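Below: protein 1.
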Amino acid sequence: MRGLLVDFGGVLTTNVFDSFRAFCTDEGLDRDAIKRLFKDEPEALRLVRALETGSMSEDEFGERFGKLLGVERHAGLVGRMFARVRPDETMLDAVRRARAQGVSTGLVSNSMGEGRYERATFAELFDGVVISGEEGVHKPQPEIFLLGAERVGLPPEDCVFVDDLRENCAGAEAVGMTAVLHRGADSTLPRLEELFGVALR
């Protein structure tokens, strides 16, 4: 394998759903209210996809998603949902180490509006960047994975994709990539070291 493509939220950061649970607790909701809404309410997923592809603003998403969720204050909803997300320095360092050892590295991320990324670090981390809101496609659509491979200059078959959602891993595998379902650095990094033959810790 020659290319490492990674998700952002939940792979290069702490668990996104932990932040969602904390937000729900702050708002006086059941801690899994957001997760349940994604699972049970098709309109919630439709709103997320619209935000991810840049066809809906954060403000409009906040108003419409907030109503579904039963939250009274809609202003700044996305920022509040993600407020507890922090960088995962172990995973970030692993990407740096991979790149320093000749692995082509790329970001393939479904965006949740502006301000979620530390773009100042992109130049040192990635050879290519694909963010759904800037491209108009989202994971697990095949086009976004193919674009990710193109941005790092490799065929999909030479790329490993890391994501914390099974459906996105399945989407990457559908275009010929090898996928790693991320459940923490302790399990992901040994698998990547095996696939690339380089030390990442």
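Below: protein 2.
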Amino acid sequence: MIWLVLLATTAAQALATLAVLALPVIAPTLALAFGLDASLIGLQVSIVYGGAMLTSIMGGALDRKLGSVRASQLALGLGSLGLLFAILPFVSTLVLGSLFIGFAYGLTNPAAAHLLARFAPAQNRNFIFSVKQASVPLGGMLAGLITPPLAEAFGWRAALALLALSLALLALALEPGRKAWDSDRDPTVKLHVNPFAGLGVTWRNQRLRWLSMCGFFYSAVQMCVASFLVTFLVHELGRSLIEAGLVMALMQVAGVAGRMGWGGLADLIRSGHKVLLIIGLIAIAASLACFFLTPSTPSWFATSLFMLLGFTAIGWNGVFLAEVARSVPQEEVSIATGGSLFFTFMGVFFGPALFSLIYGGLESYSASYAGLGLITLMGMAMVWKSQKVFYQAAK
């Protein structure tokens, strides 16, 4: 049972992520189509995660009322609709489509966390959560491998239409599992009573509060690394769009390996906090190294550096969500996950927009990427605070 649940939640998360990153990986093409500067893709990403923030805080209650499978199907439908809105030749519909994609993304994690907490054995929880969270870089890998070639061959609008179709088909494919997996849903839950319950659960739990603030900083770095990579490679390092998409895919492959590898390490040493600190240290070193990238930098070195960033800055989420689940009783997992992800999505909301402003001042992607090391350091401080609360409670 757990492996079917894991497959379903991983697939839903991967395609939701594909929808999120489909626009950033063709940012130079979109910029020409809409007459905008490509660096403004950071604002589009912020709009996506603004939508995700809204649905993440309601995701726990919605999951309990509809069931995790139905909530996942709703998310996939919203993501498909968002991609179709983005096809229309208006900046306003691009904004609306980005919001819908964000609504979709915000619903996926609470539903998946509820199912995995319900069916996953406790001794393998870090690994199982990390395998599911590997779906995020997997979705990014698909975005990098599929979207640029489709856009080159058929046009970017046709590419987005095909991606929208894939989300809709997966929503239909999840239907057979609904009866068994949604057997614990509670139709009497009233969404309007307190949709912000997850924020209260998160804030009252000191360990969870500091952990969520770590998610704020780490997620800001993650989304900046992923969202601006193609534009960095094309505009500053002189790569082609397809070559840049391949580097994006390789970085996401490293993220997949990182999520599973870090999850396994956390189970082995029985400390997600320590693993999050190790991840931060390596990510800081990789971010600072980006300062020295130039068009003459050997391709293998630049690609390896971005893969190291993928292994760390994209590889932390599974351990993070497993720690969130461990911090509350099982019946509160989906609500606490939604509350914690509100802060995570807040980091993504502010991070890319701030990055766009910093780039506007520095006019250097290499310097802007190096600055991400400071944000990672702030996230490490939050992990340390959470770990301190945990050890004090254990005494």
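The mean pLDDT is 85.
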